Every structure is written in C-alpha cells, then in structure tokens.
Amino acid sequence: MTAYVLVSRSAEYETRMRDLLGDRLAVIPGEFLTFGPESVVSRIPESPRIALLGPVLNYEETKGLVEALTAKHPHLGLIVVREQRSDLEDWVDELALHAVLNPDATDDTTVALLDRLGSWLVGNGHAETGDFDAPASIALSDLERTWDESELEAGVKPPSPATPVEPAPPEWEFPPLEAGVPTEAIAVVAPKGGQGKTTIAINLATGLAEISPNSVVLVDADLQFGDITAALALEPERTIVDAVSDAADDEIVLKTTLTHHADGFFVVASAPSPELGDQIRPGALARLIDRLRATFRYVVIDTTPGLGEHTLVTLEHVTDAVFVTNMGVPSLRALRTEFELLSTVGLMPGNRHIVVNQTDKNSGLTIKDVEKIIGAPVDIEVPKSSAVLLASNRGVPLIHDDVRDPAAKAIRSIVLRIAPEAFPKRSRIQRRRRSNEPE
Fold first, then answer.
1. Fewer Cβ in 10 A, N or C end of the chain?
2. In the prediction, which pLDDT does 201 show?
3. Is the torsion defined by CA of 383, 389, 390, 396 positive or negative?
4. For residues 293 and 279, what is the distance between their CA atoms, to the nearest angstrom?
C-alpha cells in the first residue's frame, strides 16, 4: 500500500523523499497541475494516508489540491512543504492542513513529523498501524517468481512491471488574432539598472497571458545583459539574434525562434553574449516588434536601461510605456531627465504608466516627494518584498508564486491599466477574501 504521496515541482526534494520513504511514497509531478488539481488526484494510487504538497507550489495550486484531495480522501493527512514566510499564517488559517514542514528540515525532523501525524490518524480511526509499514521485498513478488508451464498453458500470464507515468507535455498553439482587435506593444523602461524593470516585464507578460493565453510575447531587448530566461528558468534553443535574422522574415521561421513558457506566453531570449547583442541594429529590433504585433495580442519589451538607440526605437513602435524607478534620488532625477528628453523629441508614448518600485516608508521620501522630483504623478507603487527575490530564484513569476504578496497585488494593478478587460477576472486571479475582511 502507498502510505505517502508527494506533489511537488522540486526534483531535488522528490529524490530526497524517495530515498527517505522508498516504496511507501508515490510521487505526482507538479506539472500535472497544468491540467487542474483533479488531474493530480486521479493519478494518486489506492488510498494514501498522508499527502505532502510542495515545495514550489503556490497558494492557488495548494488550495485547489487541498479541496480536491479532501473531497476524495476525507481522512487524508495533509502537510504543506513550505519555508517560513510572513504569509504562512494565512495559509494555515485558510487551508485545512494538519502540519507545515520546512523543505530544509532534517531527515530526522521530517520522519518525526510523519510519525506523529501517522499516530494521530491511527488514534482517530483514520488509519491502521500497518498502513505505514514498509512493503514486502519485491524479490519474492509475482514479478520475479518462476511461472511453470502448466500455468502458462492455462492462460495465466505473469504481470508486467508498472511503467512510470510521465506527465504529458501541455499542448499550446498560436491562436489567431480576432478581426478588429487591436494589438498592443508595451515597453518597460528604466533610467538605470537595478530598478526591477525585468521583474515588472515578466509579471506583466504573465498577467496578460491569463486573459490572452499564448497570444503574449515577451521580448528581452536588454541586448547585452538580458536575464529573462534565467529568471524564468528557461533554456532557449534560439535567441533574438535568430529572431532578427533574414531567415526569420518567414513567419514560420520566426515562430521557431520563440521559447514557450508554461504560464501561456512566449519569450524572445536575449542575445547569448554582449558581442552578438551589439550586432543587432535598432532598425532590426523595430521590424521585429512590428512583426510580432502582427501575430500576438500583446508584445512586452524589456529594454536596455537608459535611452540608448535601441530603447528609443522601441518607444517609437509601442502603444504603452511602463517607466520603472526606485525611490533613490539619482534614479528619480534620471527619470525626470528622460521625460524631458522624450517630450522634446516627440517620443513619449500616448499611454504612460509610472511605477515606483521597492517603495519603503523608511527611505526618507514620500510619494509626494517622488512626484515633485520626477515632475509627474505616480500611477503604481510596488512595495519592497522579499517574495520578489524568492520567486526569481525559483524561476517562477511573482504573481503566480505568491498571489497575496503586496508586491504581486500591485503588479496586478499594472496589468489592469494595460488591459481593463481583465478586471472581471480579477476574482479568479486574486486570493479568496477572508471572512473577516471588509467588503
């Protein structure tokens, strides 16, 4: 019998738990969550006694799993595998869990927790003591015993070893653009490096993909030091160098230069080296943006910091620009200089969105001070949050890693500014309102 089941996206943790629990553990790869929690539950063998959920599962995924597992296995022990975070108390309050386990806990601590929960289940009549025993050795099983000729002649066939179930790759396609629906291109711009521009671009593309699945492309146009693929844990076969080549004038060839992300958008990876990035001419980048707009509903471009030639030509070919700065006075003054220059040369996009990132009440500045320095009103404040770095280290967009984090919520509001039609779906992508929160 399978006593334990693990649903996780961490291959390292899976290997560790297999070594610890052996044949008592069944593992369901977290990739099956692409098809919904029911797809995971349907693959769980027999009736397990304890389920470990995580690590690298977000709140919405965990919530869906808890509900689906509880419905099918009402007496299942549930453990969330997650590190200590400021919002962990909310997870415990809102989900019907039995325990929380830190993924870095020692083997002794992990086994002790499993034993305590197992004893509790047995004591409450939800399990038998023998349910947690290690299975008998397979050496004497039907798979290896000798089958005599009389059995074979009688039609009795030896069982075949079970074939491990591998998750089917999610299917996707390029949906056609609807007639009359305008395409939009959004440049994400910052006066200096280190403002969080790439994080905003990644999460903006992720949010737009929720309302236009597979019709969003994220272009890493930081041609020397772009790191979008690293932040998303992608391994592209082709890059922007291929996307601007003569061969990519063919639409089919262009599509082969894109890398698909599991959250329903495509990525044009940055140049593999600064030297190759320098070879891309501004005009080639402009043509790439225009060609992508002919195929995708939304094109999000992460630009090189400052106002170099490539950033200026990008601003000529977009409908919106998201300007990102932190609360440092040098960055704010540089942003004001950018605004003045763009206004002078007539390159300020019609739709401008100003985002102050990593806001901190201890910075010595208020938002009014910020607005006075840059000479323009601030549209979005994104608070400083450790969840941003954690999500990046996991290779997961913040708004899908921790939907209730304040920074994730602020970035959601940027999505709504770009695509107001996303508003009716907001309840689906935000967390459930708690019973004690005001309407």
1. C
2. 96
3. positive
4. 23
Compute the average pLDDT of residues 384-400: 86
What does the block give as tokens for 326?
């932190």
Tell me if residue 364 falls in helix, strand or coil.
Answer: coil
CB-based burial of residue 406 (10 Å sphere; 0-12 exposed, 13-18 middle, 19+ buried)? Answer: middle
Give 321-361 pLDDT, tens digit per residue: 999 999 999 999 999 999 999 999 999 988 999 999 999 88
How much is the pLDDT for 92?
66
Pure H helices in 212-259: 228-231, 240-243, 251-256
Better-scored residue on pLDDT, 163 or 10:
10
Element (H, E) at 111: helix 107-123
DSSP-assigned letter for residue 384: -
| 4-136: CATH, from 3.40.50.2300, 3.40.50.720, 3.90.1700.10, 3.40.640.10 | 3.40.50.2300
pLDDT at 319 over 90: yes
Domain extents in the chain: 4-136, 184-423
Report yes or no: 31 and 12 within 8 Å, Cβ to Cβ. no
Residues 319, 184: contact at Cβ < 8 Å? Answer: yes
Topology given in CATH for the domain delimited by 184-423:
Rossmann fold (3.40.50)
First to last CA, the chain: 47
Q: Are 4-136 and 184-423 in the same CATH fold?
A: yes
> CA–CA separation, 133 vs 114, rounded Å?
12
